[in-house]
Specification:
heterodimer; A: 216 residues; alpha+beta; six-stranded antiparallel beta sheet; four-stranded antiparallel beta sheet; 3 helices; 10 strands; B: alpha+beta; globular
């Protein structure tokens, strides 16, 4: 039984300084200034927005999933979660969430992990890790594969059982659900809108997400 | 013909080495309450490293025990767990930072305590990564050998005190040439009031070759495919005609 934490946002779409729809299989990067708020909208429901964060002033300091969950003492992300870098620096804070909880243990799909999880012939299929690498390659030699730390899967439901099992369950998200995060420090956000076709968690149907940004 | 190497990693200690394919590493807790934080890299290409999410989701588990393998971000097996007296090793709690150690157990300095000062996983890893040409940029979620952290239904994380008893062991078998980096420092969620690190013995011997009925190979179909990816890589690196 999932324990969910809901918090609705007062922000109005017409006040946003940025409003873009990202199709499944595409990537996106953006540098949030302190106090700016990013909203990710799950337009059609149960879509995974695989997301990484970097300290924009020191990009070798990447998001740390385990620092983040260890400090809050809970494996799920929701309103109030502060997402930390490897150094412990606070990157963004989740300030609104109509989905209820988000995963940060399941990581991003890759060609190689698809061969392990599904079958060797999935190797050519499009995947999040390729999107991450294509996006980071635009920054010249600032990033390498070393910077691909475990990420956040917004809208994904990956329960950890008390017995230590890890399962990909049916989603707790639905069309129009959203999550909002406010930058604590200058933060580079990297998103892969997941193209996974082998996993029932998105009903084998990857769909677009909407990204909105507000100056606070 | 077996060659045996044995060493004690003291409380607060650290260690790193390249280890070839086909070795077995047995860790033995010499006192109650051990925790050894472990990082693993492909020694020939350190951009390939232990990947917590890929390891866990492929094996449908959030903890590690015998039969499980530690997978890399390239879908290969770095090492297999071929023996384990405990049944649970932690994958989700990370390493202890300097700030955490100072706040929980009191600020210590080398000047005052000499080598009894309280070491942190953060600093131990920073040094051993640097020794091997890497930096804190290469830090990823560690495996905490000997520790149990479970989650209740609400997702809250619970550290189990005294999980590892004196004499508990876990044995890894290397499936490719690896760089192993160890920090014998407290689990971040350990609730002890006194610095809980205890000595651990590490014994390294030659492993038996992987047989068709191998427990780790047959644990799940996912494991076999990861082994197949690994064997491909070993073959490709050998040179000559396939």
């Amino acid at each position: 039984m999932a324990v969910l934490h809901y918090a609705v946002s007062e922000r109005k779409v017409e006040d946003a300084v940025y409003n873009q729809t990202i199709p499944a299989g595409d990537g996106w990067t953006y540098t949030l200034e302190p106090d700016q708020v990013l909203r990710i909208v799950d337009l059609e429901g149960n879509q995974a927005a695989d997301t990484l964060f970097y300290d924009a002033d020191n990009p070798s300091d990447h998001y740390s999933a385990v620092n983040t969950i260890q400090r809050q003492g809970n494996v799920y992300l929701s309103t109030g979660s502060v997402l930390l870098a490897e150094s412990g620096k606070e990157l963004v804070k989740i300030v609104a969430d109509t989905c209820g909880r988000h995963d940060t243990l399941g990581g991003a799909c890759s060609a190689q992990s698809n061969t392990v999880r599904y079958s060797h012939d999935t190797l050519p299929m499009h995947n999040c890790r390729d999107t991450f690498m294509l996006q980071l390659s635009k920054y010249g030699n600032r990033f390498t594969k070393r910077d691909l730390a475990p990420n956040v899967n917004f809208f994904m439901n990956v329960p950890v059982t008390p017995e230590g099992g890890l399962t990909f369950e049916n989603g707790v998200s639905a069309p129009g659900y959203y999550v909002e995060m406010q930058a604590v420090n200058r933060t580079l956000v990297l998103i892969s809108n997941c193209p996974q076709l082998n996993n029932p968690c998105n009903a084998y149907n990857p769909t677009p997400i909407q990204l909105l940004i507000w100056d606070n | 013909m077996y060659t045996v190497s044995s060493k004690i990693i003291p409380a607060g200690g650290k260690w790193s080495s390249r280890i070839s394919r086909g070795k077995q590493l047995t860790f033995t807790a010499l006192e109650e309450g051990a925790n050894v934080s472990l990082l693993l890299y492909n020694a020939n290409d350190t951009t390939e490293r232990y990947n917590m999410p890929d390891t866990l989701k492929a094996q449908h588990t959030a903890h590690l025990t015998v039969g499980n393998v530690l997978m890399s971000d390239n879908g290969r097996v770095l090492a297999s767990i071929i023996d384990d007296s405990l049944g649970w090793h932690d994958t989700i709690s990370g390493y202890a930072t300097r700030q955490m150690i100072d706040e929980r157990f009191g600020h210590t300095t080398y000047q005052e305590k000499r080598n009894d000062w309280y070491r942190s996983g953060e600093e131990n890893f920073a040094v051993e990564l640097f020794r091997n040409g890497l930096t804190t940029r290469d830090l990823v979620p560690v495996v905490n050998l000997f520790s149990k952290v479970f989650c209740s239904e609400d997702g809250n994380m619970h550290f189990v005190s005294s999980h590892a008893k004196k004499g508990d062991t876990i044995t890894l078998r290397t499936e490719m040439e690896v760089l192993v980096i160890l920090s014998n420092t407290p689990n971040p969620l350990d609730t002890s009031n006194t610095y809980p690190s205890v000595p651990v013995e590490l014994t390294i011997t030659d492993a038996q070759p992987v047989q068709e009925d191998d427990r780790c190979l047959n644990y799940r179909p996912e494991n076999r495919r990861a082994f197949e990816n690994t064997w491909d890589d070993v073959l490709f690196r050998k040179g000559g005609i396939l």
